[in-house]
Amino acid sequence: MNSRQIDRRSFIKRAGAAAVAALALACQHTSLPDARLPNIVIIYADDMGYGDVGVFGGREFDTPNLDRMATDGVRFTDFYVAQPVCSASRAALLTGCYPNRIGILGALGPKSLTGISDGEVTIAQLVKQKNYATAIFGKWHLGSRPQFLPTRHGFDEYFGLPYSNDMWPFHPETPKDYPDLPLIDGEKVVAHNPPMDSLTTRYTRRAVTFIEKNRERPFFLYLAHSMPHVPLGVSPRFNGKSRHGLYGDVIMEIDWSAGEVLRTLRRLGLDENTLVVFASDNGPWLSYGEHSGHSGPLREGKATTWEGGVRVPCIMRWPTKIPRGSVCVEPAMTIDLLPTIAQLVGARLPAHTIDGLDIGALMTGKQGARSPHDALYFYWNDSLEAVRSGKWKMHFPHSYRTLGGNEGGKGGQPVKYGEADTGLALFDLLKDPGETQDVSAEHADVVARLKEIAQRFDEDLKHNRREPGRVPAAPGNR
What we know:
By secondary structure, the chain is an alpha/beta fold. It contains 11 helices and 19 strands. The protein folds into 2 domains: 39-374, 3-Layer(aba) Sandwich (Alkaline Phosphatase, subunit A); 377-463, Arylsulfatase, C-terminal domain (2-Layer Sandwich), CATH 3.30.1120. 27% of the residues lie in helices and 20% in strands. The protein is globular, with a radius of gyration of 22 Å.
C-alpha cells in the first residue's frame, strides 16, 4: 500500500460518515489522480440485419462470440441508427447529431466534394481531451478528400477504405461510375482494389496491435467493418464453414473478429476497464438476396425508415459496470454514444448543439431508468418520415423502396426494388414490432401529439443546421 492510500484511509476514518458520502459523490464526477480512465471500443458492422445475430433471433447464423458478449453484458432490443444509410449513419454515430443537422446525407461517393466539417467534434476528438490514443480500422465514409480523413478529425491511426467497398470498377450495375478503390494507411494510399476476402482479418489484426501498443494508456478503438456490405469476401479459414453460404461465412468472420478483440482485452488484463459496443450501421440490403442479411421480425431493410432499416442489433459489455445478461427495452440511438462517453471519461461536450443524450443509466441497468428522449426522429435524406415516442411509432405519408415479398438477387447480383407508398400510420411496437397493424384510428390523441412534437423538432432542425465541409470545385478536385 502506498502512502497516498494510507493517508486517504486515515482521512476517511477521521472524517466519519459525512465525509465518506461527500467523497463518494465527488468520485462520481471526477477522476482521482491514480484512476485509470476506461477504454472504449466500438465495433460497427455494415448492413448487418437485426436477425443476423443469434441473441436477436438469428438462430441460423453462427455468432458465439457476440452471443457470449450479450450474456456478459446488456442487449439493447430497441436500438436505432439515425438514418438507414452509410455516411449519414456514421456521421450520427461519431458526432452525436442527427446527420441532417451537420449536412451529411446518403452515401458519399469518391467524386463527392463534401464531408465532415472541421467544426464538428467526433468521439475521437472528444476523448483527446483526456489524452486517449485513438484509431479507426475499416470503413470511414465521411469524405475521401484529405481534409475529411479520420487523421484530420481526432484519430491517430487509420487503415481502411474511405467509402463503401462496392464503389469500385467491379460494381455489378454501374462499374464505369467508379475509379479504383483505394486502401489507405494514415493518409497514404497503399493499394487499389484490395481483395475483399482479406479485409476483415486485416482490420482485426490492426485492432489487436493497437490495443497491445496502447495497453498502458486509455484508448478509443473504432473497428468499422466493411462487411457484410457487398461485395462479400471472407478469409479461407471461414470460407464454406457456415450453414448459410457466403453470407453466413462472412457473419462468422465478423463474430470471430469481435472475439479476437475481447480475447485481447482479457489477455492484457484490460477487460474489466473497457466498454465494448457492437452495432450495425443500418439494416440489410435486401435486394442482394442470398448476399444480404435478415431483418428478423422487422419490416423492410436498408434505406427505409421501417424498423428493418433503422433498428439494429446492439450489445454493450463492461464487466465492472454492466450487469451480466441484462436486457434494455428502452429506445436509444447511436447519437447517444458521444454524450454517454463524455460523461464516462469526464470530457466536455461540444459547444454547439448535439442531439444525443446520456444513456449511462440504461447501459448500467439502473433501476427505473427510462429513455432520456421524449422522441426519436427518422429521416430519409431531408424528409422526416417517422417518429418514435415510447411504444408508439408513427409514419408520415411517404414513398419507400420494397421488394414486395419477392426474393432478392443471387451471386452478388441485385434485383430492382419496387416503389410503395404509406399514408399516415401509427404502430404499437410493443405488440407489433413488424409494423403490420395501423392503429391510428383508435388513438387520435397519440397521433395529434406525435404530429405536434415532430413538426416542432423538424422546424427547429431546419433552422439550426450546420454546413458540411466542402472542397472547392476546381478542375483538380473533380
